[in-house]
Amino acid sequence: MPEGVKNKVYQFLAQNPGKEFTAEEVAKAIGVDRVAVVKAQLTRLKREGKVEETVDHRYKLKQ
């Protein structure tokens, strides 16, 4: 399941380039109840260099 969540998170951010979202907003948008799962996948995408985190803990697609 987490791999599917990771893809959903990435696709959501890719469809909203330049926009920043909290983990909670991403979870709600992709229909995942457990925010912790989304946070873990955002961290993984950040480590892969696909997503960046702002100082106020919002996430966006890395340009």
Account of the protein in words:
- InterPro entries: WH-like_DNA-bd_sf, WH_DNA-bd_sf.
- It comes from Thermoproteus uzoniensis (strain 768-20).
- This is TrmB family transcriptional regulator.
- The protein is mainly alpha-helical and 63 residues long.
- The chain has a single domain (2-61), classed as Arc Repressor Mutant, subunit A, CATH 1.10.10.
- The chain is built from three helices and two strands.
- The chain has helices at residues 2-14, 23-30, 35-47; strands at residues 51-53, 59-61.
- Strands 1-2 form a two-stranded antiparallel sheet.
- Strand 1 and strand 2 (59-61) form a beta hairpin.
- The longest helix has 13 residues, at 2-14.
Condensed summary:
By secondary structure, the protein is mainly α.
| Oligomeric assembly | single chain
Instruction: Classify the beta-strand content into a percent band.
Output: 5-15%
The helix-strand sequence is: HHHEE
> N-to-C terminal Cα separation, in Å?
27 Å
* Biggest sheet overview: 2 strands, antiparallel
The name of the CATH architecture is Orthogonal Bundle
The total count of strands amounts to: 2
Overall domain count: 1
Return residue spans where pLDDT drops below 50 for at least 5 consecutive residues.
none
* Molecular shape: globular
What share of the residues lie within helices?
Answer: 40-55%
